[in-house]
Structures are given as structure tokens and as C-alpha cells.
Amino acid sequence: MSHMFIYPKIYRKLKRGPQVILPKDIGIIISYSGIDKNSICIDAGTGSGWLALSLARICKHVYSYDVREDFISIAERNRAFLGLDNVTLKNKDVSKKVDETGADLFTLDLPDSEKALRNAKKALKDGGCVVGYLPHMEQVKKFSTTLSRLGFADIYTVEVIVRDMLVREEGIRPTTKGIWHTAYLTFARKQD
Ligand SMILES: C[S@@+](CC[C@H](N)C(=O)[O-])C[C@H]1O[C@@H](n2cnc3c(N)ncnc32)[C@H](O)[C@@H]1O
Fold it and tell me: Atom 25 of ligand 1 has which residue's CA nearest to it?
């Protein structure tokens, strides 16, 4: 049995456009960033909205940016399906301009995420958290180096590996199939 089967039913019903962030990674973004019902989150790119809408289920408001209007439409359908009214979807380039300030969390899942870090720094409040979802190690290096250059603190990278277990009468062990690598997650905080 794969971990996919334990996802809440709502995830199985959401539409998918580009590659989505899976609950195993969403969970650690929520827990390590420490967001709660009073938090303001900024997210990019929206894609199908899996991360943005998961954040919206627990925080005060999410602003999510995507350059592709067709992906914003998919995310809008998912938003309506979940009945969330605390999400603002913006068809804009996050590396050009971010309109909001005072954010608690800024999440980035797009190619060349490091190009948006200057805007993330302006938009975050002191002590706010930035997270990059980075499929390759070269991206982690560029992202971390840019974080350091911009004066972010507590720069930390993790990979979340979930091992599905085969539970049966005899020979209980991890399964030989399942999702292994999705992306590395690089966290940092804007200095207080
Ligand atoms: C892999 S998808 C994001 C998936 C999303 N995190 C989810 O969980 O469903 C990457 C998205 O980034 C968007 N994108 C790429 N460059 C961008 C930019 N400069 N500003 C905003 N969105 C961008 C793409 O259009 C694409 O929809």
C-alpha cells in the first residue's frame, strides 16, 4: 500500500497541471516554518495550487503568484472545490514584483527560485521563513549561496524520504517501490 492511499480524499480529487508538491513535503514546510491561523503566506509558482491551498487550510491568508494563466485557472478550480476564501491568486512574475509585505512565510517552487529571493526578503517580516522546493542539488547550491549573500539566517536543507511498509503475515519490511526523491527543501529566516 503506497502512502498515496492515506492522503485525505480532498487531495485525490484536486486537479493537477504541472508537478505538484506532495503532502510529505507540505507537512514539513508547515511544521518547520511554524505557521498558524494568524500567518500570512506568499507562494510561487502556484501551479495546481497544491501547496498554496494546503497552506490556506491552516493560515490566515495566502497570496500565490504564477506567470501562467492556464495554471492559475486550474488552481482557481481547486480553490473553489475546497471552498477556501482566504487565497488570492495572482497572474504575475514573482521575480519582478511582490505587492505584499509583513509575510510570515514565502514559498518558492519554480525554476531559478533564487532570482525571487530579493523580493522574498522585502516581503517577509523580521524572523519570517523562506522555503525553496528544489529538485536538484545544483539548485540548492545556488539558492543557499544567494540566501547567504542576502543576509538570511539559519540556512538549512533537508530531504524528506517516506518509506512505505509492507505489513503482512510473514516478512514485514519496507516496500521496494514508492516515491523516493521529490525535491530538497531549503529553509532560512530573515534576520530579526
Ligand atoms: C512545479 S509548478 C508549482 C506547483 C505548486 N507548488 C503546487 O504544489 O501545485 C511551477 C510553477 O511556477 C510557475 N512559474 C515559473 N516561473 C515563475 C515566475 N517567475 N513567477 C511566478 N510563477 C512562475 C510555472 O508557471 C509553474 O506553474
Answer: 68
Residue in 52, 22, 23 with CA at minimum distance from that of residue 40? 52
Whether the model pTM is above 0.90: yes
pLDDT tens, 98-114? 999 999 999 999 999 99
Q: Which domain holds residue 115?
A: 3-189
**Distance separating alpha carbons of residues 95 and 135, to the nearest angstrom:** 19
Atom of ligand 1 nearest to the CA of 19: 1
Burial zone of 78 (CB within 10 Å; 0-12 exposed, 13-18 middle, 19+ buried): buried
Quick: pLDDT tens for 116-170. 999 999 999 999 999 999 999 999 999 999 999 999 999 999 999 999 999 999 9
C-alpha distance from residue 97 to each of 22, 92, 94, 157 (Å): 27, 8, 6, 26
Give the CATH number, domain containing residue 87: 3.40.50.150
Ligand 1 is surrounded, with C-beta below 6 A, by 18-21, 44-45, 47-51, 65-68, 71, 93-95, 109-110
Number of domains in the chain: 1
How far is 139 from 6, CA to CA, in rounded Å? 31
